[in-house]
Design brief:
Layout: H1 17-27, H2 29-51, H3 56-84, H4 86-105, H5 110-138, H6 144-171, H7 177-181, H8 184-195, H9 201-206, H10 210-221, H11 223-237, H12 245-252, H13 255-273, H14 276-290, H15 295-319, H16 325-349, H17 355-370, H18 373-383, H19 390-419, H20 421-442, H21 451-459, H22 467-485
Helix pairs in contact: 1-5, 1-6, 2-3, 2-5, 2-6, 2-8, 2-14, 3-4, 3-5, 3-19, 4-5, 4-8, 5-6, 5-18, 5-19, 6-15, 6-18, 10-11, 11-22, 13-18, 13-19, 13-20, 14-15, 14-17, 15-17, 16-17, 16-20, 19-20, 21-22
């Protein structure tokens, strides 16, 4: 690896939050693609289920096919991002998503439909890893939580846009095909926007492109801080070499880093096991069961869910670097547990006269999720892993997330039929309780910490140190490794 210059020339531009915010907003379009696809299926399935004459099992497969591709995409995302760079990877994924959207809209039968949904899934699964990673590696530590949460905000905006598109096309009688075709627009915006950005400082530094890394840092944190930050990046990368993927996985299982993987995968699985995407995917179906009798009124109620989701995520962006990650997770898990239990109770006594009460409970559930597990999982997945293992760690967490999503999505309708509406939601309420306990006993607070501080937290037995101390300790570890190898 090329060595950085002893002293880097300071950049001319003064520090401003504006560039960092703009960069985060562009990269977060990857989240918007994720959200749009998540939301569009809920309205479209009311129509393509009839067109393709699907059974409940066939409907679950059609809805969940995208998750199969997402698991594969997430598994390879870290390797792609490390090999090609975060920026180029996102451009390629946007192109894949656009192609998949067009081909899905043209699908003549359910088999072709599912195949192209899997292609779309590859794009959004990989983007779900790379977009938050890109933002985290570009963001100043003081506002990293808010900026990475842009990705979750974009997901909720994408869901809302999809609901509105579903509502418009359903009202116009245009069916499900144009609902999918609209996804070409955000795909093109992501590809064009990323074309004009540089790659992240940490990836550029890992390739020995120190001048470019310094300029990228200076753009978001100012020239003086850029030199300090680049020194910290150098010390954390000194031990990095071309390491095979399986070796990186084994390294994540070592005692010094194992807890990071436990937190990442644990939050990934629990984010889905609280049932969020069953509500998003099947919201119109839930509201029809609850008493909203027509497809249009069910989609309208679902659109209200989308609006509340966006507004709650905006609130989370303002709170995540103030209250911290843990506080939001604990508040949200408690809220989800109560609202899911309440929905189950109403279904147990009969929902025929409680449609609007169920709507209120669903909205409060969405608020609880959107201020907690929604943004905080993606944020923590992008920041808790060491620099040289971040791509692999984020990929494994996201594979776990999509796998849990697939499991929940393909069992939801079957679970409703087998266990009943009430028991189904009580199961999710119990899983929300497990989430509360997991956060309370295991998840650390990373608010305001540098990525290098977080790395040393794991390596020092889960103890926090000052940023300057973290830099010195990582430098010593790197020097020790160099001496051992010499």
């Amino acid at each position: 690896m090329a060595q950085p210059p002893d002293r880097l020339e300071p950049a001319a531009a003064a520090y401003s939050k504006g560039p960092a915010i703009l960069i985060a907003a562009i990269a977060a379009l990857g989240g918007l693609l994720f959200g749009y696809d998540t939301g569009v299926i809920s309205g479209a399935e009311l129509f393509f289920t009839k067109d393709f004459h699907l059974s409940p099992g066939g409907e679950e497969l059609a809805v969940s096919g995208v998750l199969i591709g997402a698991i594969v995409g997430a598994a390879f995302a870290g390797q792609l991002a490390d090999a090609l760079g975060r920026r180029l990877t996102l451009i390629i994924l946007a192109t894949i998503f656009a192609a998949g959207a067009i081909l899905t809209a043209l699908a003549p039968n359910v088999t072709i439909f599912v195949i192209f949904r899997i292609l779309i899934g590859f794009g959004i699964g990989a983007a779900a890893v790379v977009a938050p990673m890109f933002i985290a590696e570009m963001a100043p530590p003081a506002i990293r939580g808010a900026l990475v949460s842009f990705d979750q905000l974009a997901i909720t905006v994408g869901i809302l846009v999809a609901y509105l598109v579903d509502l418009a096309f359903a009202a116009a009688g245009l069916g499900w095909r144009p609902m999918f075709a609209v996804a070409v627009v955000p795909s093109a915006l992501l590809a064009i926007g990323m074309f004009f950005l540089s790659d992240t400082p940490r990836w550029l530094a890992s390739r020995g492109r120190w001048d470019e890394a310094q300029r990228a840092l200076a753009r978001v944190i100012g020239p003086a801080e850029a030199e300090k930050e680049l020194h910290g990046i150098r010390t954390s990368l000194q031990k990095e070499e071309a390491i095979p993927w399986i070796v990186r996985v084994r390294e994540l299982l070592r005692p010094g880093v194992r807890w990071a993987l436990i937190v990442g995968v644990g939050l990934a699985v629990l984010q889905q096991f609280v049932g969020i995407n069953t509500v998003i995917y099947y919201a119109p179906t839930i509201f029809e069961i609850a008493g909203f009798k027509t497809a249009s009124t069910a989609i309208l109620a679902t659109t209200v869910v989308g609006v509340v989701n966006v507004l709650s995520t905006v609130i989370a962006i303002f709170l995540v670097d103030r209250l911290g990650r843990r506080a939001l997770l604990l508040i949200g898990a408690a809220g989800m547990m109560v609202t899911l239990a309440a929905i189950g109770f109403v279904f147990a006594i009969g929902p025929s006269k409680a449609a609007y009460f169920i709507l209120v409970c669903v909205l409060l559930y969405i608020v609880s999720f959107a201020i907690s597990m929604g943004p905080v999982f993606w944020l923590m997945s992008s920041e808790i892993f060491p620099n040289r293992l971040r791509g692999t760690g984020a990929s494994l967490s996201t594979v776990a997330n999509w796998s849990a999503n697939l499991l929940v999505s393909i069992t939801f309708l079957s679970l409703l039929h087998a266990a009943g509406n009430a028991v189904t939601f009580w199961i999710y309420a119990f899983l929300a309780l497990l989430t509360l306990l997991f956060v309370w006993f295991i998840v650390p607070e990373t608010k305001g910490k540098t990525l290098e501080q977080i790395e040393l937290y794991w390596r020092s037995g889960r103890h926090w140190v000052e940023a300057s101390t973290a830099e010195r300790e990582l430098s010593k570890q790197a020097s020790g490794a160099d001496d051992a190898n010499s």
